[in-house]
Write a structure and sequence with these properties.
- With 326 residues, the chain is mainly α.
- The chain has a single domain (18-285), classed as Up-down Bundle (Rhopdopsin 7-helix transmembrane proteins), CATH 1.20.1070.
- The chain has helices at 13-40, 47-71, 83-118, 124-147, 161-165, 171-202, 208-218, 221-239, 248-298, and strands at 309-310, 318-319.
- The protein has a two-stranded antiparallel ribbon with strand order 1-2.
- The protein is elongated.
- It starts with 12 loop residues before the first helix and ends in a 7-residue tail after the last strand.
- The relative contact order is 0.16.
- The chain crosses the membrane at residues 15-36, 43-62, 94-115, 127-148, 187-204, 216-238, 258-282.
Length: 326
């Protein structure tokens, strides 16, 4: 069903190349800093770190695929794209969607694994365990749904506009529904990533200033959620604002617009999952150096720090024993 919404302008190929290139560098730097912060703090690498690394690898594959398609004038080709160009673009679209599901899924798993360990004595860790399983199923379900959106006729996914308009394929109708359900469920999990730390930290018995500081440190999922909301809106507009017969140029505009917001969300997710770990790791190292300097200047022997986390009267503790996180 078509609606009268205004479709946003698609980015130029130059803009898409620039954004993807910048994000490639920042994502690499974020994960490298995460591992370096662990090393500085003399902490073991744990499951959430390896999941972040796996998400980075998938993100780099996504970025490379998008850069290749754009540089070959297949993606973001608005100058009279041919049927051959369109078929190639649809193949890139299928590949990017599959890689994106894996990359976002691994990023979400890294978040929930971190929250499960950090909030290990709070009942919310059971929710995190459930969400880890749910996200894993979410990944598998949408990979299969993307590949099998035309049933067993996978080649129909990249059929040209002429075939779509002649009703020889399932591409147009099924893809819109699939993308809408995908982006909405993606948004829901991002909201959960954001609110879980708030729910725990608000209940802690500590000074309001420190509580606000901890919320700012842990609620990094808000950036991904904001992007996800914008992306969900664009997906709905694109999916349900088309004419009865889609033309090749409009397909290219819509594909490029959604690819832009997908690459933003995938890469910002990598950045967000590293911010908390890097920030706390650096602060722990700095605090340890200050403590050693104080004891050296005062002549007091440095004893082991037996502090095991931040607690409150209700017994909830936010562990920092294995990851430098309070």
């Amino acid at each position: 069903m078509a609606h009268g919404w205004t479709t946003p302008s698609a980015p130029s190929s130059t803009a898409l190349l620039a954004v993807t290139s910048v994000f490639t560098v920042t994502s690499l730097s974020a994960v490298a800093l995460r591992f370096y912060a662990r090393r500085l703090a003399r902490l073991d690498l744990l499951a959430d770190d390896w999941l972040a690394l796996a998400a980075l690898i998938c993100t780099l594959v996504y970025n490379s695929t998008l850069l290749t398609g754009t540089s070959r004038d297949i993606i973001a080709n608005y100058t009279h794209p041919t049927a051959q160009t369109e078929v190639a673009a649809r193949k890139y679209q299928l590949a990017l969607q599959i890689i994106e599901v894996i990359a976002l899924g691994l990023t979400k798993l890294s978040f929930f694994t971190l929250w499960k360990r950090v909030f290990s004595t709070h009942p919310v860790h059971r929710l995190c365990t459930f969400l880890i399983g749910a996200v894993t199923l979410w990944m598998v379900a949408f990979i299969l749904a993307t590949i099998l959106q035309c049933g067993g006729h996978v080649s129909h996914i990249w059929s040209s506009i002429e075939d779509v308009n002649n009703s020889n394929t399932c591409a147009s109708a099924n893809r819109g529904i699939l993308l809408t359900v995908y982006t909405i469920t993606d948004l829901i999990t991002n909201i959960l990533i954001t609110i879980i730390p708030i729910f725990v930290i608000v209940g802690l018995n500590m000074r309001i200033g420190r509580k606000i500081g901890m919320i700012c440190l842990y609620v990094v999922g808000v950036y991904v959620t904001a992007i996800s909301i914008t992306r969900t809106y664009f997906t709905i507009v694109v999916s349900y604002n088309s004419n009865e017969e889609e033309d090749r140029l409009s397909f290219m505009h819509e594909f490029t617009l959604l690819a832009l917001w997908a690459v933003i969300e995938v890469n910002v997710g990598i950045l967000a999952t590293c911010v908390t770990v890097v920030t706390r790791g650096v602060r722990e190292v700095y605090a340890d150096k200050r403590k050693k300097k104080f004891h050296m200047l005062s002549g007091v022997a440095l004893k082991g720090d037996h502090h095991g986390g931040v607690g409150n009267e209700g017994g909830t503790r936010i562990s920092n024993e294995s990851d430098g996180i309070e």
